[in-house]
């Protein structure tokens, strides 16, 4: 594929904002693509995919090119060399030598943290916590993320939406493990589709779609989604409950709940009430009120690096230690909202036992009125984002 100056410049501008200004990659790309409505689908794909790829392979590219952390043109040149992409005769690429880059790449292929392009500490932690399986999971985390939709069963069904998409040449595939998922064959801006505006689907990774069913909700129940954020799982729970019963969606961030309400309206969800958590009182008022409680807690996000590759360069061990404390506090304090005989699901998008099964084991030791019913991992090597979920039951 030929490089064009304007789209290449857009990649450079995106990298400058992601690494220079430390902005989130998804937000940066979304904004840059919005700024130029004349770009066609191919240009947009080039900008988004190239930027994500350079973010993903940042350490490796710096090593093989070689160049400094803010030498974005060189990073792009290195990326071209490694992807058999022709290098135009531009002054920005002067001094780059394809053969030398490929030679260096061969040299570093045996050093996993460089070849798989992750910080030293992350490789050490992955090895320590996951042992043998870390190698394959890490490789899977470096693949490109697919765009997955969850069909909104309150408004349509998989068959109908599949048929509608095929009529407008939106190619999607199915996966029998995830009955409500449609997987896009090619990345595209699905938010522009009329079917999105009508609330017929949400963008939600397939792994994430396993969590709401794991809570075993039924129509008519009172369900508390205590770390609801912008409501990805709340909307799924509402669909599973056929809009019957009540969902109380809580979060410490009011703006996320505002977004949740907008999404709920679009999705035709009518059984959700939001509550901002201002203090422990908000939780205490709900003591023993939930038939079901979902704790989709903040985490390192190590299971979703495929989707958020910039997190590799922003995460730190200090942050993870803090988040582990927060997870245990949430689990301990918020479990009081489960009524006797009710169930609670603790979930993360991390792969690490310290954030997952070890947290649940500690909780069970300190809270003997709960017992473990089921635990489940979704690994990135299975093809989608990585998740962990555990369901515990409160004694009746
Ligand atoms: C993994 S995200 C939730 C994603 C959401 N469930 C979804 O499906 O889209 C974790 C959420 O926990 C919230 N959070 C952070 N600290 C919290 C606390 N102490 N109590 C409740 N929620 C908290 C964050 O604001 C964030 O929205």
UniProtKB/TrEMBL annotation:
Residues 137-396 form the SAM-dependent MTase RsmB/NOP-type domain. InterPro entries: MeTrfase_RsmB-F_NOP2_cat (IPR049560), MeTrfase_RsmB-F_NOP2_dom (IPR001678), RCMT (IPR023267), RsmB-like_ferredoxin (IPR054728), SAM-dependent_MTases_sf (IPR029063). GO terms for molecular function: RNA binding; RNA methyltransferase activity. S-adenosyl-L-methionine binds at residues 251, 296. The active site is at 349 (nucleophile). Pfam families: Methyltr_RsmB-F, RsmF-B_ferredox. Belongs to the class I-like SAM-binding methyltransferase superfamily. RsmB/NOP family. This is Methyltransferase domain-containing protein. It comes from Chryseotalea sanaruensis.
């Amino acid at each position: 594929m030929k490089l064009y100056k304007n789209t290449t410049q857009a990649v450079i501008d995106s990298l400058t904002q992601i690494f220079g200004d430390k902005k989130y990659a998804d937000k940066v790309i979304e904004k840059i693509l919005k700024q130029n409505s004349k770009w066609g689908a191919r240009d947009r794909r080039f900008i988004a995919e190239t930027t994500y790829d350079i973010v993903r392979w940042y350490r490796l590219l710096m090593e093989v090119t070689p160049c400094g952390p803010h030498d974005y043109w060189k990073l792009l040149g290195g990326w071209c060399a490694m992807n058999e992409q022709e290098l135009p005769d531009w002054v920005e690429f002067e001094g780059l030598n394809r053969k030398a880059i490929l030679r260096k790449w061969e040299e570093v292929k045996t050093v996993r943290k460089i070849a798989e392009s992750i910080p030293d500490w992350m490789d050490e932690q992955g090895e320590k916590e996951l042992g043998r399986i870390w190698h394959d999971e890490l490789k899977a985390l470096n693949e490109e993320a697919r765009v997955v939709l969850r069909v909104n069963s309150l408004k349509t069904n998989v068959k109908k939406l599949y048929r509608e998409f095929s009529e407008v040449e939106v190619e999607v595939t199915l996966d029998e493990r995830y009955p409500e998922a449609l997987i896009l064959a090619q990345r595209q801006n699905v938010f522009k589709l009329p079917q999105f505006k009508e609330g017929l689907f949400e963008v939600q990774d397939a792994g994430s779609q396993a969590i709401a069913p794991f809570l075993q909700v039924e129509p008519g129940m009172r369900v508390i989604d205590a770390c609801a954020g912008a409501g990805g799982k709340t909307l799924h729970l509402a669909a599973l409950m056929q809009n019957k019963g009540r969902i109380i969606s809580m979060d410490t961030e009011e703006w996320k709940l505002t977004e949740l309400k907008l999404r709920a309206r679009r999705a035709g969800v009518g059984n959700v009430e939001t509550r901002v958590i201002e203090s422990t009182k908000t939780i205490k008022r709900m003591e023993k009120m939930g038939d079901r409680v979902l704790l989709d807690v903040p985490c390192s996000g190590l299971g979703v690096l495929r989707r958020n590759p910039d997190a590799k360069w922003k995460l730190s061990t200090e942050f993870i230690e803090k988040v582990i404390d927060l997870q245990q506090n949430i689990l301990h304090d918020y479990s009081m909202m489960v009524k006797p005989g009710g169930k609670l699901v603790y979930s993360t998008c991390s792969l690490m036992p310290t954030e997952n099964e070890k947290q649940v084991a500690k909780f069970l030791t300190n809270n003997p009125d709960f017992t473990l019913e089921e635990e489940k991992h979704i690994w990135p090597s299975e093809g989608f984002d990585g998740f962990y979920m555990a369901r515990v039951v409160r004694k009746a």
